[in-house]
Fold each of these.
Amino acid sequence: MEVFEFIQGMARTDENLIQSAEELDKAIDHIVQLIQDSCSLYLSGSYPSSAFLSITACEEVAKAHIGSFTYGQHPDKKGRNMFRDHKTKHQMAALPTVPMGQRLEEAIGKVELQRIMKTAQNGGFVQVRENAIYFQRKNDKLVIPSEKIDKELARALALFAIEVFDDALVGLTNHSYEMDDITDKLFEQIKNT
Amino acid sequence: MEVFEFIQGMARTDENLIQSAEELDKAIDHIVQLIQDSCSLYLSGSYPSSAFLSITACEEVAKAHIGSFTYGQHPDKKGRNMFRDHKTKHQMAALPTVPMGQRLEEAIGKVELQRIMKTAQNGGFVQVRENAIYFQRKNDKLVIPSEKIDKELARALALFAIEVFDDALVGLTNHSYEMDDITDKLFEQIKNT
């Protein structure tokens, strides 16, 4: 797997981004807050802002997951930190384990799940992320976020972010199980919309 | 004023970012949605995500305001669009007219208002924006957004974003007055917290 090779190639130092279980728990609290914010905006009908926060949650999961054994220095490009690169974070979030569970596939369907995985892996989340908060001129027309991100996409991204969190971080600390109760409830709530 | 000189120096073409009153109204709807999202997250106690969306609203106001007479090409640096540069957008949002009104100064105090204006003008919003959604390692400690953005800062930024919108865009179209009713109510609601 390309993304695994990439992660394997990262510089390992004692200066990891996350250096203790307590720090991981802090990062988890922050990620669950992002997921809660995403879900509450989704439920109030603000789909683009919700989608933006779902993608941000995925980025932060990737940092917390991989950051336990690296500070993020790029293996080839000196001075560049991968945790500041959106596309790399999206790829590290969409690990092959994510679509293996049943829950997400049942909630959004196999085709949509594969589409979301591909979008994250090929860099497409970068564009979705920008479409979600910025208006822009495209083909001689002004396009605003609500025209680019609909309910279906925001729903899929919120559920995807929860699954990404669950897959990468839940189980690593006792606290992560407690936070999982919150995100499991949100998953059910969003699924039934 | 430096920011005025900068705006004066922008390339003027027929290819403006915003090309009609209808397009400006669409941008206004999008900006008011960002403000509403920011306020609802603030009111639910999620201060960092609120602060991020307040700053995003300021950026979009600057684009809608200045984008009516330029596409954003940088006067000096070819190929660079100023509407993609966070610092420039923050400077164009924090115009000298913003602190002139009474409402914002009464709500957050003169000292805090001057501090926010300076932060926007000297590029400090860029850091606040990142602090609001990303955890990071600082001085050998993991720092998460809730440790960087408190209620007071989120409140000031939400009120600031509303005033920036009000100052730059309200009055330009009939629709802008209708949307102003929404943001005026939010201003009062946030002010009384």
Amino acid sequence: MGKNRLEAFSDGVLAIIITIMVLEMKVPHGDSLDDLRAVVPVFLSYVLSFVYIGIYWNNHHHMLHTVSRVSAGILWANLHLLFWLSLFPFVTGWMGENHFAALPSALYGAVLLLASIAYWLLERAIIADQGTDSLLARAIGRDIKGTLSPVLYAMAIPLAFVASWLAQGIYVVVALMWLVPDRRIERALGREAD
Amino acid sequence: MGKNRLEAFSDGVLAIIITIMVLEMKVPHGDSLDDLRAVVPVFLSYVLSFVYIGIYWNNHHHMLHTVSRVSAGILWANLHLLFWLSLFPFVTGWMGENHFAALPSALYGAVLLLASIAYWLLERAIIADQGTDSLLARAIGRDIKGTLSPVLYAMAIPLAFVASWLAQGIYVVVALMWLVPDRRIERALGREAD
Amino acid sequence: MGKNRLEAFSDGVLAIIITIMVLEMKVPHGDSLDDLRAVVPVFLSYVLSFVYIGIYWNNHHHMLHTVSRVSAGILWANLHLLFWLSLFPFVTGWMGENHFAALPSALYGAVLLLASIAYWLLERAIIADQGTDSLLARAIGRDIKGTLSPVLYAMAIPLAFVASWLAQGIYVVVALMWLVPDRRIERALGREAD
Amino acid sequence: MGKNRLEAFSDGVLAIIITIMVLEMKVPHGDSLDDLRAVVPVFLSYVLSFVYIGIYWNNHHHMLHTVSRVSAGILWANLHLLFWLSLFPFVTGWMGENHFAALPSALYGAVLLLASIAYWLLERAIIADQGTDSLLARAIGRDIKGTLSPVLYAMAIPLAFVASWLAQGIYVVVALMWLVPDRRIERALGREAD
């Protein structure tokens, strides 16, 4: 089975997630600055989630570059990842509407944590299918960012109940950490070509 | 007529269905644990429907692998299947919001039943176009899962009025039964290649 | 400029239109048969619109088969068609929620009329680009269905104010008329191949 | 990294934006002409935004024609553009629902301004990657429309508070200015071919 339809389906789901999140930013009825100000927290949570979905799309894109055939395990690991990402509009809206309160911020972190675990499982499913000597396995090597992120999310969840801005801070820092694209796979592909 | 645009359109519709279902999980206004708990039934029905759409996408993907040209019959049988699947967001939301009450659970089963019949009709339309000696016809053979599923859904509909959890149990069992991917087509393709 | 991205974009928009229409079928709060019955008119209007979007997708698919390059005129004629089709969720929801009342039924017909004119303009744009001796021009010939449909829609609009079911009847009859796929283009392509 | 998935993802996001905007046009509960008249301002803002997204899709399409490989810079510049475009449904709905009041009209202009800057940044990212001697760089030359548009949007924002129709007028004029497709790239591609 080829990977084109898997990529197309994943792209479709990610494109829809990133776009319908904006529907959680309800159009205010009044036209004053105060009406607009009420939307600001939802807007900020939207920006954060937009960046996260962008990062996932980007890394997903890179990771699938190394895949040539899609096994049933890869297919379901991919759907599992999409499931957690599909919860972004809900947790984004909930966190924004409640002005980054403790519980919604913790739940946001929980979805980030589960999505990062799902991403790791997809990575494992690909390597399991292609062998530990595969391009992806060598490209990833010691995956510092991939290991650090879930640890940081797991820390943020309890911290949200101490002070919500601590959790937010961690989410922003991890996003910035990933904004630098993963050049390991590109580099490994480059070495392959030589 | 090629099948690429049929696949792309179906993928698009399935990607949208799987994603907009999450919009039925309304963001609660409060930020307490009780507010979140109120969303749990809709979340559970969302998980079930996500798995079902995933299964349909997966099997649809496999089935179209065997198709080379798209007749008008195949095209409309495919749209007919997409129609019943497009009702998933509605029945999922209704069942979840009413905490798996009898009538919404029965309607959920009815949509599952009609979708499975539509899938079977699409299978027939493809075989009718390609001949009973075709790859798909041989791959399917005696389609135990495909025959058993509608029977189980048809049983679940009246059972929902006896005890709603009986219907839910059947929906979960059928989903688990299908989670094992259909290796018959892959195997038949493998034999073809030899 | 190639036509692939035009097709992909059109498919995307049509897939979204056909799917978000279901969001106008609001999940009822109660779980009784009466609650469900209240949704029936919106469901019926949804079925009608689903079939219409399916027909447009199907015919659009056939028509673009004959196009090799996309001019600016074709591109904007295509967007113009998508614009009128994008109003389907609105008019479908309005007609359904008001139980096929006169004005919503007339507006539904107006959107059908404008979409059919837009389709005809797209056909002209393609023929203008490819010459009246082109495959599409010959395939269409005397376009009976394409000429009859707007006339019938235009009749249905005033008739909706006489008796709403007359307009509905016309919409159903025209849809059935189009459900038979347009074999002219397939036939012309077949002749070309000979 | 190829550009196909970037195009497909962008097309998906633009197709969703252009389609979900219609969801901001809430179906009225009554069936009278007055109920419909209340929707007219949202409809007009929808038409304007539909044309703008169409223009962006068209020009994006042309611009990516000149790209062969996608760098991380291009990828994020593209996501940045999609971010501002994703705010169209919100500002369109807000401006329409408030009958083109001053503040919503100014915010609409601000999103137009930021989107046009993001488009310019994407152009720079592509040229930076391909060299100032590249096809795109030569095709654009002195980019009069691209330079004039942000200036006009920036003028429209304060003017919205003087008289809202002045801002609206500017948005319409700029849209008309862009409706004429950008033939510079096509011409440069033509010269290349010679």
Amino acid sequence: MADLRRKIAPRLRLRAVGVVHSPYAEPSDLPPPAFAPPRFFERSVGTIEVFPEFAEALDDIEGFSHIIVLFHFHRAGRAKLKAVPPGQSRPRGIFSTRSPHRPNPLGLSVLRLLRRDGRRLDVSGLDLIDGTPVLDIKPYTARDRKTRIRTGWLRKKGA
Amino acid sequence: MADLRRKIAPRLRLRAVGVVHSPYAEPSDLPPPAFAPPRFFERSVGTIEVFPEFAEALDDIEGFSHIIVLFHFHRAGRAKLKAVPPGQSRPRGIFSTRSPHRPNPLGLSVLRLLRRDGRRLDVSGLDLIDGTPVLDIKPYTARDRKTRIRTGWLRKKGA
């Protein structure tokens, strides 16, 4: 197995392409989505700053209403295989949660793109803390929008 | 700038948590989404195998209709800041495309979860080649589903 693993999946090294500017200094400044006041995230705004050497890669993004931001959960503690989500009574498999305590500390947020100013993207829907390293930015397309979804243990409240 | 970068964003090392089993052996076996026959991807099925040491992290995922798979574009060539998408006439900023040739070769697919059998997930909507290293699996939730989207240069054809 170990040999297969090395063959299939050599370790991957990533670098930040930008950084998040956010009003939230600490993870505890952000409510879990299931417990956020109504419209909390719609009103939550900030800026994604892309480093100068990657600025050109942002061209044409202004035509998209939403972007997918992949980021490093840089404040996550050690990885867990199970965790008790906020408001839940029992542990859930980490791949069925959006917890930061993942085997690979990769996070994903779909944000509304309000404005591009050079290498700065003003966004809403922000659920990221200040200083979060940005690893990738992708356009949100019709293929990312799924209808008739089931959301398991999240039900209505946690969705 | 270099000092700031090192402070904000130390390099991140990732490891595969699983691997894709797919009927597509080569990237050229997959049509670009804009040129796929109707319902091509709905009928495109395969399996995500999670390695034994991460199997427990899959618990509770069977309640979700869709999963987000983050993967390594392990066959991507060198990174580009701009690329001409299939069927397009001019280069676009790479962050406004889903091209594999990204500064960090991270890919994202939203797949329909058909069945979980232990540490194997049967999926449809598959647009990944055989042997793709899987880095993370997340549940697709209502917060990932955006309405009234604009998709820039993709327009109707490329969405």
